[in-house]
Amino acid sequence: MDETILHASRIPAMKPEKARSSNRLEALTRIIREVDSAPDLDTALSVIVRRTREVMAADVCTVYFTDHEQRHHVFAATDGLSADLVGQVKAGFGRGLIGQVADSSRPVNLAEVPEELDQEFLTQSGTDRYHGFLGVPVIHKRRVQGVLLVRQRKARRFDDADEAFLTTLAAQLGSAIAYARTNGEVCTLCRTSTDQQRRFEGLSGAPGIGIGKGIVLFAADLQAVPDRVPEDPHTEEQRFRQAVASVRTEIARITDDLEGTLSSADRALFDAYVLMLDSPEIMDSVVQRIHLGNWAPGALRQTIETHAQRFDLMDDLYLRERAMDVRELGTRILLSMQGTSARLEDYPPDSILIGRRISAIDLGLVPPGRLCGVISAEGSSLSHAAIVARALGLPAVVGTEDLPISALDGQEIVVDGNNGHIYLRPDPALRQAFAALIEEERELGESLSSLHDLPAQTPDGVEVSLYTNTGLAADLSLAAASDSAGIGLFRSELPFMLYDRFPSEQEQITLYRQVLEAVAPRPVNLRTLDAGGDKPLSYLHVAETNPALGSRGIRLTLDHPEIFLTQLRAALRADIGFGNLRLLLPMISDVDDLEQALVLLNRAEQQLVEEGFAITRPKVGIMIEVPAAIYQIEQLARHVDFLSVGTNDLAQYLLATDRNNPQVSRRLDHCHPALLHALQQIAHASKGAEIPVTVCGEMANDPGCALLLLGMGFDGLSISASAIPRLKWAIRNVSTTQMKALAEQALQLDRPVLVHHLLEQVLQDARLEQLQDPPQY
Ligand code: PEP
Ligand code: MG
After folding, report:
1. Is any ligand 1 atom within 6 A of the Cβ of residue 534?
2. Phi and psi torsions of 136, nearest 5°
3. Are 150 and 158 in contact (CB under 8 A)?
4. How far does the centroid of ligand 1 lie from the alpha carbon of residue 234, in Å?
């Protein structure tokens, strides 16, 4: 008997509704796959309307786009009605069936549509009546982007499975429309031209305004590579051919190294790479595109994407997986085309650095003085790129996930870091308005420079200690030049991230001596390695599902005493002759962690003394940034000399809000009452334990929040060097009595927005309005 028949007879027949839902699921997966690999929105839409009509056996499937400016929904694509209606039929906000779907934000399912409800559509389209209707809203990030609907000529009640199917597809369509909208693809229907000024909304990463030319940093992100006109196509072709040759050598080396370890099946993968490298289909096409006017990385992206998409659409899973191989090969060639260090000529003055995920290190690697702004599509205001941008005084916008990154390359852009907005190709009036704001900022900066060397002293004579936060060479020079009381936070993990292995004891000594010397005799709080979480080291892979709650900071270094001891030895040795080192331990959550760290410090000291080094024991402090530490201040304080509050992590853990996730970053509000009460408790407990406590989180950069923290009783603040003059101005104009009253009032309030209003009021009363954010455009 035929094997398949035998097996089939053993399998119980599926119930009809189950079979139908499994077919639906298959159809859905297939449509989503096709939509994902569609090269543009038009293709994606035609896939959706055609397939949906087919699967649901409907007479018509249509998509409308919402034009928020014109306050109507525009007929954008159809299967079943005339294509002439596209762009012609419009449904006003709040009117008719389409308006009802969009307004109610839920499906509208009618077996029989009342004629008057569809009158607007019937009149504009000139079609006959359709009786059955199911429409679902297309929503992205809480905003209606359009409506997806099916119609039936006869009366038909679409069932629950139909509703679920259409809703799932609409969710998929939402992000595609939002992305296309920012890309300019939706513009023709929504009547704005792609050459016009465009605005994108993100989050404020670092304050200030920059006007300059976009430079896209794509690193290993092939899809983010922009198109650029090559200076000389022949040089580009050569560059490409060299890259291919070096990838071929690399693959040959890997295959040789793995000889004997790889099975013949595994070897086939590498052989396939080599075959692709030799295939004229890929190679000739890249060269052709170069000579048609694209630079090598752009031509590579176009070719690889076209090639990979063919595999994407294949039914066979094995063949579909080949798309990944094609993209991987493209990435290898791309990486091989890039030099390792940033070249000065790649960054003309007034460049705006743009990338999907700009890191603190990317910023540190750009030649100094070339940037006037930063845009990172991912991340939030507490991401380390934003923190470093702030330290360097560079305006930054982060968390603009729908940004068409590659389209920004070479374009004129305004980065409004105060409000988190980006303007592409600003028109002359807007450009002028922003240029005026930059000028105002410059004048304020100049007038505040007169405060240099004056103490940060309140009108009632209390001097406040202001320290700076640093970590990279670029912001160290700013910190050293500032008149701060020292470095309140040196993030030692940032230099570690510049290496491709752990830096040796000697390398670390050189680095720390530079820092200690730059600010001596002022103190430096050298925070021991706070790697892990959102600051991974490329050479120390820790596989974790939830790195923020995993092995980071002191937890990681306690697990690796060899790394910790090397760092402690290097720090102690670097301090010889300066004596301004203080050690700061990150992510302490209990007394055991602290005691173990101190045991290792004792061991490092003992070793060095035995080796004959004339070291002195530095003061030791801990970061208060894990909520558990708040409740053990008294016990922890017995072992150390000072405390430093990391509000970035404290807020993240207290409010259960990932500091790097732009989806939730609006919840990470430093004026949240829970955070304010926690801070007040820390200040009180530290007073009780008679231990000095400062704040080194980003919150202290905000003049209003800084006054509030001082009012709570914190002994000092550590902030970006660029924020020192503004904060000094605020402190010199608000008395300690006013600060205390402000803290008392703020702690009475039950919502962040009320605290923000209160802080604004205080700045206004002290005639410090200029320290508030400038107006929005
Ligand atoms: C903090 O958590 O507030 C802090 C200052 O440290 P980091 O931002 O480096 O985690
Ligand atoms: Mg921290």
Report:
1. no
2. -130, 145
3. yes
4. 48
* 137 sits in which H/E element: strand 132-140
Q: How far is CA 7 from CA 14, 15, 175, in A?
A: 15, 18, 43
Q: Taken in order 739, 742, 747, 748, is the CA torsion positive or negative?
A: positive
Radius of gyration of the chain (CA): 30
Is residue 646 within 6 Å of ligand 1 at its C-beta? yes
642, containing H or E segment: strand 642-645
State whether residue 113 is helix, strand or coil: coil
> CA torsion 574→576→577→578, rounded to 10°?
60
Give the pLDDT mean for 605-612. Answer: 97
Structural contact between residues 364 and 474, judged by C-beta atoms closer than 8 angstroms: yes
Q: Which pLDDT belongs to residue 2?
A: 38
Phi, psi of 211 (to 5 degrees): -120, 125
Please check whether residue 618 is in contact with residue 572, taking contact to mean a CB–CB distance below 8 angstroms. Answer: yes
- Two structure tokens written together for 187: 């513009």
Short-list 479, 423, 478, 484, CA closest to 452: 484
Tokens of 2: 């035929």
Q: How confident is the model at residue 45 (pLDDT cuts 50, 70, 90)?
A: confident
Q: Is the CB of 718 under 6 A from ligand 1?
A: no
Tokens 């600060």 label which residue?
Answer: 739
- Name the residue with tokens 């752009």: 298
Evaluate: CB of 527 within 6 angstroms of ligand 1. Answer: no
For residue 406, what is the DSSP state? G
Q: pTM of the predicted model, to two decimals?
A: 0.75
Ligand 2 center–CA 622 separation, angstroms? 11
pLDDT band at 777 (very low <50, low <70, confident <90, very high): very low
Instruction: Please tell me the chain's helix, strand, coil percentages from 3-state DSSP, rounded to the nearest 5.
Output: 50, 15, 35
Per-residue confidence band for 260, with pLDDT thresholds at 50, 70 and 90 = low
Map residue 465 onto helix, strand or coil.
Answer: strand
pLDDT for residue 682: 98
Residues with CB under 5 A from ligand 2 (ion): 625, 646, 649
Distance CA(590)–CA(60), nearest Å, equals: 64
Query: How does residue 305 score in pLDDT terms, banded at 50, 70 and 90?
Result: confident
Q: Which residues contact 340 (CB under 8 A, 6 or more apart)?
A: none
| Structure letter (DSSP) for residue 195 | T
Higher per-residue pLDDT: 255 or 696: 696
The pLDDT score that the predictor gives to residue 180 is: 65
Residues 6+ apart with CB under 8 A from 770: 444
Distance CA 682, CA 646 (A): 12
The rounded Å distance from CA 649 to ligand 2 centre is 5
Sheet of strand 132-140: strand arrangement: 90-92, 72-79, 60-67, 143-152, 132-140, 108-110
Residues serving a catalytic function are 384, 696
- Per-residue pLDDT at 39 exceeds 80: no
Q: If residue 24 lies in a helix (H) or strand (E), which one and from where to where?
A: helix 16-36
Give the residue from 487, 497, 575 showing the smallest Cα distance to 530. Answer: 497
Q: Please indicate whether residue 697, judged by its CB atom, sits closer than 6 Å to ligand 1.
A: yes
Alpha-carbon gap, residue 332 to 225, rounded angstroms = 14
Task: Round to whole Å and give the CA distance between 513 and 516.
Answer: 5
Which of 204-208, 271-275, 422-426 is predicted with the least confidence, judged by mean pLDDT? Answer: 271-275
For residue 481, how far is its CA from the centre of ligand 1 (angstroms)? 23
Q: What is the 3-state secondary structure (H, E, C) of 511-575?
A: HHHHHHHHHCCCCEEEECCCCECCECECCECCCCCCHHHCCCCHHHHHHCHHHHHHHHHHHHHHC
Residue 544 has pLDDT above 70, yes or no: yes
Q: What is the DSSP string of 33-92?
A: HHHHT-SSHHHHHHHHHHHHHHHHT-SEEEEEEEETTTTEEEEEEEESS-GGGTTT-EEE
